[in-house]
């Protein structure tokens, strides 16, 4: 809650001090011109904002008002206020569509047997809309893991998105922020045949 549309709210937040959870909800509702039950529901840890990883809410009265919740992934304000902007557009710097593969299945003869099992399994999981299907590819950098994921997505005829590993300035994104981005991506693609 540090800045809202260019207005520095830190002085106001400092005056509010360490409010109880009920008072915090009331202050947020007044600030956003919303009803308290709506704010309480939206900031609940099981609600989409917190469960998706978009925000983190500290419900303890130990935190001051300004530190009560943190927007984890910043989207362009114009995108957030645009009712036509899709969630994927809002997080385009974090959840990135991959490029088409430069290799084919023929380039992976050494893992052909596992791929003959994996591709039909993933195809079935996608058809059944089965959540929680995970595959871990590991190996040294440059051994073709990313290309293999692209080849598999191409074989399944589905989109493949990756979670960015560095920010716009080229600095590495911390692992906990990447995991939150993955949670957001799971929410965005919940009902779509997509690989992450």
Quickly describe the structure:
With 196 residues, the chain is mostly helical. It contains 9 helices and 7 strands.
Characteristic key phrases:
7 strands; elongated; 196 residues; mainly alpha; 3-stranded mixed beta sheet; 9 helices
How is this structure best described in words?
This protein is mostly helical and 196 residues long. Helix content is 42%, strand content 10%. It has 9 helices and 7 strands, in the order ββααααββααβααβαβ. It has a 3-stranded mixed β-sheet. It has a two-stranded antiparallel sheet with strand order 1-2. α9 (175-188) links the parallel β6 and β7 (194-195). α2 (21-32) crosses α3 (36-43). The model has no long low-confidence stretch (mean pLDDT 79).
Topology overview:
Layout: E1 3-4, E2 7-8, H1 10-16, H2 21-32, H3 36-43, H4 48-51, E3 55-57, E4 69-71, H5 77-81, H6 87-90, E5 95-97, H7 112-127, H8 145-156, E6 159-163, H9 175-188, E7 194-195
Parallel strand pairs: 6-7
Antiparallel strand pairs: 1-2, 3-4, 5-6
Helix pairs in contact: 2-3
Low-pLDDT residue intervals, each spanning 5 or more residues: none
Widest sheet, order of strands: 5-6-7
Encode the helix/strand succession as letters: EEHHHHEEHHEHHEHE
Give the oligomeric state. Answer: single chain
Structural category is: mainly alpha
Shape: elongated
- Roughly how many Å apart are the termini? 31 Å
- Share of residues in strands: 5-15%
Q: Portion of residues in helices? A: 40-55%
Mean pLDDT: 79
Supply Rg: 21 Å
- Per DSSP E runs of 2 or more residues, the count of β-strands stands at 7
- How many strands, which pairing sense, and closed or not: the largest β-sheet? 3 strands, mixed
Number of helices: 9
């Amino acid at each position: 809650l540090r800045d809202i549309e260019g207005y520095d709210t830190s002085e106001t937040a400092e005056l509010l001090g360490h409010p109880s959870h009920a008072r915090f909800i009331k202050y947020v509702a007044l600030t956003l011109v919303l009803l308290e039950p709506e704010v309480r529901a939206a900031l609940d840890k099981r609600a989409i904002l917190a469960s998706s990883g978009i925000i983190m809410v500290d419900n303890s009265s130990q935190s001051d008002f300004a530190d009560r919740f943190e927007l984890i992934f910043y989207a362009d304000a114009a995108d957030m206020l645009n009712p036509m902007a899709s969630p994927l557009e809002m997080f385009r710097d974090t959840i990135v569509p991959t490029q088409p593969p430069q290799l084919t299945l023929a380039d992976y003869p050494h893992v052909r047997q596992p791929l003959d099992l994996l591709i039909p399994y993933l195809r079935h999981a996608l058809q059944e809309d089965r959540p929680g299907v995970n595959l871990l590819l590991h190996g040294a950098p440059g051994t073709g893991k990313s290309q293999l994921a692209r080849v598999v997505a191409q074989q399944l005829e589905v989109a493949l998105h990756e979670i960015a590993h560095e920010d716009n300035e080229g600095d590495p994104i911390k692992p906990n922020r990447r995991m939150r981005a993955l949670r957001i991506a799971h929410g965005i693609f919940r009902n779509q045949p997509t690989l992450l």
